[in-house]
Every structure is written in structure tokens, then in C-alpha cells.
TrEMBL record:
Entry-linked SUPFAM superfamilies: S-adenosyl-L-methionine-dependent methyltransferases
CDD domains: AdoMet_MTases
Keywords: Methyltransferase, Transferase
Protein name according to UniProt: Methyltransferase type 11 domain-containing protein
GO biological process, one term: methylation
GO terms of molecular function: S-adenosylmethionine-dependent methyltransferase activity
């Protein structure tokens, strides 16, 4: 039987505390749209499986919105340790997408936040389909740091939803006044990220270390869903682009929570920290600053596929 990715489990066993501290949560507006497209709506009693829930970053969104019938399956003991501290009353199981410890047709929705790229294959999809009730839906959601091939659609959808928050109004208005329906999510993301070039420069540098591990930005998860014989093609997609603040001294700490950075020896981490400092000194402008913090662009992306 296939098992959870070793790099993910090992790294998240060791960095779960910093992951919980420095990774961003999910904005309410995009979560609302995601849950609506999952047909969860206002029925707070529906059974939701959160797969690879980590420390509960997305779980908090579900709890805050009143969902009470939750079950979590997570392959990292370290992540579950922090999850239990955050949500002691939620049912949890140590397990993976390849052997979900739930009955057939037992959940109304399966949600994966920030994780499907680690196990995007037909074996996982078979298990996800098995536990979903007929008419149930499978959804994935990610926060992302810059534009990438994952925002390029393989085939046009009837509608792609765009949300914007806390951004320079003239850029957003230009997009909204123009034919935004003709813009790909990649093009929209690039236009927004071009407001803060330092974000893309830092992300691109860090991404040089992720070539040997599956990541959202690589887009292979999209190919799997598009070509799957288990599920029909992607039904809905949504994007949120927004600006937030990050303390300048937490930029490296944020990136250090990436599994492929966590796994590096300390000497390599010191080199990365030094190089990040150099990039920021070169690329960060006064308009990017707000006191001791930096203005950064963030994106969130979700996809939903139905069980047929």
C-alpha cells in the first residue's frame, strides 16, 4: 500500500509548532465561497472529513463558522499533537489518504487544505471517493505566495470566481472594469503580485529548493484531477487575492516552515536567511513598509470536484 510522503511526515513531525505559529489562516470570504461550492451551505450538521488537517489552520475556519460534525485524518503525529492542543474535542485519526479509517459513504464532503499536492494520485482519490456519500464533493484549498502554473486552467470553466481584499483600488478596478472573464487566474495573479515585486523575488528564490518534493505551484495535482478516472473534471474554482502585513523579522521564519527548508541542515538555513536578507534589502521599497512590517500579497485558491 502507498504511504504518506516521507519528507512531509518527517518535517511536519518536527516543525508543527512553528507551522502553527507562522503559517497564515484562511480569509473568511474565500472560505464562505468554498463551502458554498461544496454544497455545505448553512447545514452545520453535515459530516466533513478534513484530510491532512495539520495543526488545524483550516479547521479553525470550519469551527468558527459553526460546523460541529467534523472528523480529521492526519499522517503526522507532531501535527496531531498541536491539533489536539488547538481542538481537543474534535475526533481525530492518525492515518493517510491511502487508508482512511472511515466507513464507505460516511461523509458529506472531504476537504484538504494546503496538502493535496503531497498525495495527488489515483490511489488517494479512490479512498476519498469511497468515504464520500453519493452526491458528496471533494475540495482542496491552498494559500499561495506568488503566481505559478497552478493558476493556469487546463480547460475553461463556466465561471471562475475572483475575490479581492485590502489591495490597491486602482489595480483591482482596472481588472474589474476590463474583461476579467478573459483573464486567466495566472494573469490576474501576476498583475496583483506585480504591485509588490519583493514577494515574487523572495518566493522564486525559496522555490529553488523545492524541486524534488511535490508542491502546489508545480501543478501536477491539477493534471491528476483533470485526467482522473475516479472523479469527473474540476467543477468549480475560486481565487482570493489580498494584501496583509508580515513582521520583517518573521519572513525567514515563515519560509522555514516549508518542509523542504525544515529538512535542510542548519548551515543551509543560515545561508538562506542571509540571502533572503539580501533580496529584501535590494527589492523592498519604502512603499512596501508599514512600521516594522512588510506589505505582502497573498493568494488563496480552491477547487471542487463532485462524486458522481
Amino acid at each position: 500500500m502507498t504511504s504518506a510522503h516521507k519528507t512531509a511526515v518527517t518535517s511536519f513531525n518536527s516543525n508543527h509548532g512553528s507551522y502553527d505559529q507562522f503559517r497564515p489562516s484562511f480569509r473568511s470570504s474565500i472560505v464562505d465561497q468554498f463551502l458554498q461550492d461544496l454544497n455545505l451551505g448553512n447545514d452545520k450538521k453535515k459530516r466533513i472529513l478534513e484530510l491532512a488537517a495539520g495543526t488545524g489552520k483550516f479547521t479553525k475556519s470550519l469551527v468558527d463558522k459553526g460546523y460541529t460534525n467534523l472528523v480529521v485524518v492526519e499522517p503526522s503525529e507532531g501535527m496531531l499533537q498541536t491539533f489536539h492542543q488547538n481542538f481537543p474535542d474534535i475526533e481525530t485519526h492518525l492515518g493517510s489518504s491511502y487508508d482512511i479509517p472511515l466507513k464507505d459513504d460516511s461523509v458529506d464532503a472531504v476537504v484538504v487544505a494546503q496538502g493535496f499536492h503531497w498525495f495527488s494520485d489515483e490511489a488517494s482519490l479512490e479512498e476519498i471517493k469511497r468515504v464520500l456519500k453519493n452526491g458528496g464533493k471533494f475540495g482542496c484549498i491552498w494559500n499561495y505566495d506568488t503566481y505559478s502554473k497552478s493558476q493556469i486552467l487546463n480547460t475553461p470553466l463556466p465561471s471562475v470566481k475572483f475575490l479581492f481584499e485590502d489591495l490597491a483600488t486602482e489595480t483591482v478596478q482596472e481588472l474589474l472594469d476590463g474583461p476579467i472573464e478573459r483573464e486567466t487566474p495566472f494573469e490576474v495573479s501576476k498583475k496583483i503580485y506585480d504591485q509588490r515585486p519583493w514577494c515574487h523575488e523572495v518566493s522564486t528564490y525559496i522555490y529553488g529548493y523545492d524541486v524534488n518534493v511535490p508542491q502546489y505551484r508545480h501543478g501536477k495535482w491539477r493534471e491528476v484531477l483533470q485526467n482522473s478516472k475516479v472523479f469527473p473534471p474540476i467543477e468549480n474554482e475560486g481565487f482570493l487575492l489580498y494584501e496583509s502585513l508580515i513582521p520583517e523579522d518573521e519572513v525567514f521564519k515563515y519560509w522555514e516552515t516549508r518542509s523542504y527548508i525544515t529538512a535542510l541542515p542548519d548551515s543551509d538555513k543560515q545561508t538562506i536567511q542571509y540571502n533572503l536578507g539580501s533580496i529584501m534589502r535590494d527589492k523592498v521599497t519604502e512603499s512596501d513598509r508599514s512600521g516594522d512590517s512588510l506589505k505582502r500579497i497573498m493568494g488563496t485558491h480552491f477547487v471542487v470536484v463532485p462524486k458522481e
